[in-house]
Design a protein that fits this description.
With 388 residues, the protein is of the alpha/beta class. The protein is 38% helix and 24% strand. The strands form 3 sheets. The chain has a 5-stranded parallel beta sheet with strand order 2-1-3-4-5, sandwiched between helices. Strand 7 and strand 8 form a beta hairpin. The radius of gyration is 34 Å and the shape is elongated.
Length: 388
Amino acid sequence: MGPTPKILVVDDEPDLQTLIEARFRKAIKNNEFQFIFANNGAEALKALENDQDLNIILTDINMPVMDGLTLLANIPKLNRQYKAIVVSAYGDMSNIRSAMNKGASDFVIKPIDFNDFETTLRKMIDEYTRMRDATRAQLLLQDIQKELDIARVIQEAMLPNSLAPFREEGIEIAGKMMPAKEVGGDFFDYFPLDEKNLAIFIADVSGKSISACLYMVVTKSLLRALSRRKLKPLEVISQMNELLSADNKSNMFVTGFYAILDVTTGELTYCNAGHNPPYIVSNNNGIQQLNSSSSIALGVTDPPALPYEVRILNLKEKDSLFLYTDGVTEAMDAKGELFGEKRLENILIKSGNASCSKRVEEVVAEVKNFASGTSQSDDLTLLTIRYK
């Protein structure tokens, strides 16, 4: 039950207070209403300044010191929400119209019909309550939006942006993450393990927004911690699954692809945990989808239903590794058709000699063009690495 509505009654007739208190005696006793009385507009303004809960106002128009119209003209200066009812003589439409223009929401006619007055009063209370609640909800949404904006900036800052010390080795990398909402569960990462080995990871957390983002942070932290121990890809993936599966009350999971690239030889050792198989894009415009097992995603069960497997291949000069999340292939157009692997493969074939950054932008542009007119339904992330 909410607080008792407070009604400010502004009228210079001494009998009105007695009549109102007698008419609403039971409602006052039951805390349905609380009435505050003022003799003129000046007293009413002081009462409003001193009590922020006075937001329903019943005011006469003709009063000494400060009349009702002047009072209505001054209330907006207090910067508060309110609902006002004016009391006027029958036929005084000019003053009633002026009062409505100054912010009054309704009126009652003298002599006051208390049945009509109570109906009007309850209606004003309901309207004010809805207006107040709507404003509170809007302010809450604004606060949430500010927090989400901060979270988005933090998430973007967590993406890697440095290739040192591998630029001298001729390694080129470009990536892009586009969450469906302010923040998301997709992410990619790359970082040196030593002077010749580069760790590469891309992942897709189940769900979207805040919960997926939090799970993403946990996954990324585990990845970095385990990788720094110089474990092999199979060991990293297996231990990540064990840790994410333990006490997983949220029932969330994450698909991931983890690889280590030897930048001196081009040897790529990788392990796939239920993620979309990446592509190798060769310098002669050919593409090859990486062979990978159908192992289960991370965090579902430990041990996994299907054991994780490690695979090894050698990148040739100027070959590129292209990784992505299913937000690319499962993007839908207005008819509900999926973008699909075939469209992605055609773009990769055409972009064989393109730089990594250009390839990423071309794929993003094609997906956006395909899904034009529809809202983004899933996080979309791409990462491509060229071995020179």
